[in-house]
Amino acid sequence: MNMKHTIALLLLSLELTACVLTPTDPGLRAEQLLARMTLEEKIGQMAQLTIEPFVIADGAGGFALDTALLREALVDYGVGSLLNVPLSESQPAGVWGPFIGELQRIATDETRLGIPLIYGVDQVHGGTYSLGSTLFPQQIALAATWNPAHARRMGEITAYEMRACNIPWNFAPILDLGADPRFPRQYEGFGEDPYLGSVLGRELVKGQEGDANDVDHPEHVATCLKHFLGYSVPASGKDRTPANIPWNALMEYHLPAFRAALDAGARSVMVNSGIIDNCPVHASRRILTGLLRDELGFDGVVVTDYEDLEKLHARDHLAATSKEAVRLGIDAGIDMAMIPIDYRGFCRDLRELVEEGAVSEARIDESVRRILKLKFELGLFERPNTLPADYPLYGCEEHRRASYAAAAEAVTLLKNDGALLPLDSAAGRKILVCGPNAESRRALCGGWTVTWQGHGIERHPKLCKTLAEALAERFGARNVEVIPGVSYRPHESRYDTEHRDRFDEAVAAARRADVVVLCLGENSYCEKPGDLNDLALDPLQTELAERIAAAGKPVVLVLAEGRPRLISRFSARIPAIVQSYLPGPQGADAVADVLAGKVNPSGKLPYTYPAYPNSLAVYCHKYADEQRNTDATYAYESDYNPEFVFGHGLSYTSFAYSGAQLTREGDDIVIAVDVANTGDRAGREVVQLYSRDLYASLIPDVRRLRRFGAVELLPGQTRTVEFRLTTDDLAFYGLDNRRIVEPGEFLFEIGASSADIRATLPFTL
Ligand code: BGC
């Protein structure tokens, strides 16, 4: 061997040694770091605190960090994660960047091992807490587009703008099934159908984490799926109250969206704050370990929801002490506790539990390994900070347009008697714009907007137009008169109106007007403060609607609301109804463009809009054959008598369906249908494919959405829409909680909604 070879070999072995010493695999790096950590340092990594107590307001809108308090938490206790926003209010990127930068500096420079923090925020419809960022429609509106591309784009833009704010972890998407219209968080999710939620949820994960889930990419963030599992259907309809959900129903309806998002590689999961079958989910080993880890194979981070370990003691009386509550949560399978304040107690309790042998150090290691691995995957060790200056597209025009596009495609035309819409903008007709939402920005954006309850947007009028402003632009200011009639109370977390606001004047103006645009719904709210005692639209708005309808002029009802408040007391007298959901800051323009005919509406309801408080069935309720079963006792269908069915949405043009056919291609079932635009405007139609299982060992659902797809058609144009599925799509969870495909007779239905079925195709398995 000559000298050259010897040197080459030496270099190679040096390289190999370096590789072994500093592996690039996040799992290996986590393992090496873990081996150097004390028990206290490990416990610190499992602790997550809210930032508020560490922030001192200067009284002029600014703030400083209480560094002594912070050092105690980050350095003495080694706390590894923080959440929330300084002063509980949206901050610009220029504040977020250096603010988190300073926290990271303390964590990386002043602690023994220099482990960076992981900062998490709820950016649930774009930049909730990032001032000047792009805010999107809420997820329920995205669902109404039935267009996965909007979920993808919202994910991408949200992630980009979060990194612009130096925030690497998003507590989103929300995959809770919107099967109960009373639930105050219905708007945060994708509606009542498991399949629609799965398709859009997957895109929202991939948009944020990237196709390859390379979350160390400077424009990607880690997602957190919430709230695992079965959060959204408490028996009372109120947030964080007990639910009863049979296991097979949990699997059949609530799990699919989470499963799809986990399959898409989501990095973390947040636990359901509620109680199922008398067991708080934070104490459910069956859900958090049996299902999530063992069955679904998830190895990412599981974080509790806000103060939820303590709730096992204080709320649920499951644990006699806070310490026992910590033990229960750890035993169930949580990795990180959103404590979020008393970290000294949490750290002491957990240390004692380990010292007493009630929790093994190996169990602590499991969680810390996952948390460190996520920090390595996010690239936080190499680059704890991302800098606002590197993100020139923050809040840019192109991002705003993406938000507008989603809002415009979400707007759902629920009723249009006599083709009242679109309103002819050239006619110079006098329009009265009234209702509490006419001049409210909050009502369009909902909770999680600038502040938790969504009341901050009014302080930033440039971020969001009101409906009255947008309508005045479209139809000419001199043609538009604005009188609220009734109003919300400013600055309060109250979603219903409580005072008249020129009520009689509004009614008198309605008589003078050619057409009335009545803007009703809800003021913003979030979580528990949004709990509801009466699903009907509030009495003052109902009275206003009745009086306006009685004025005898054509009325266009524009709804902006987080959940479908009942309108059946007056809806028969309103010829046109437009649902805008919570369309976000671009929503007023989107609605005005639909009313003016600039946009042909194509949104479809992602939930059932109920008519009565005692008939809240979802579209996929249990099967009954109306034809043969005349005994009303068994006609479950009779309880499904909504104002508007799931999947419903009209257009300014009309679509005809023809030539439906089903073929088999190997294991695939291929279903095709021709859709023609038979009207005189270009339009987009969302075509829905349902299946019915005629007989099954467990009562089958009356129908289930299996696929959907949209076509854009010019007048006179026809296109073929094709769906592919396999027999596995017809499976269900049986009595023994296993997923089975049962042979038998099925029907496939192709529809423009869950009730407007245009073609039926029999299928035998
Ligand atoms: C909510 C979560 C949220 C967390 C942190 C909780 O009250 O239930 O959805 O992620 O707060 O803000």
Please give the oligomerization state of what you see. single chain
* Number of E strands: 32
What is the straight-line distance between the termini? 71 Å
CATH class of the largest domain: Alpha Beta
Order of strands in the sheet with most strands: 14-11-9-8-6-4-1-15
User: What is the CATH superfamily classification of the largest domain?
Assistant: Glycoside hydrolase, family 3, N-terminal domain
Low-confidence stretches: 14-20, 626-633
CATH architecture of the largest domain: Alpha-Beta Barrel
- What overall form do the CA principal axes indicate? globular
**Main β-sheet description:** 8 strands, parallel
- What count of structural domains? 3
Question: Rg, please?
Answer: 27 Å
The secondary structure category is: alpha/beta
Bound molecules: beta-D-glucopyranose
Average residue pLDDT: 94
> Any idea of the CATH topology of the largest domain?
TIM Barrel
Helical fraction: 25-40%
Strand content: 15-25%
Total DSSP helices: 20
What does this structure look like?
With 765 residues, the chain is of the alpha/beta class. It has three domains: 44-390, TIM Barrel; 400-596, Rossmann fold, CATH 3.40.50; 648-764, Immunoglobulin-like, CATH 2.60.40.10. Helix content is 31%, strand content 20%. The protein contains 20 helices and 32 strands. The strands form nine sheets. It has an eight-stranded parallel beta sheet with strand order 14-11-9-8-6-4-1-15. Strands 16-23-22-21-17-18 form a six-stranded mixed beta sheet, sandwiched between helices. Helix 2 (26-35) crosses helix 14, helix 4 packs across helix 5 and helix 7 (148-164) packs antiparallel against helix 15. The radius of gyration is 27 Å and the shape is globular. 55% of the residues are buried. Beta-D-glucopyranose (BGC) is lined by residues 83, 122, 171, 226, 270, 273, 305-306, 527.
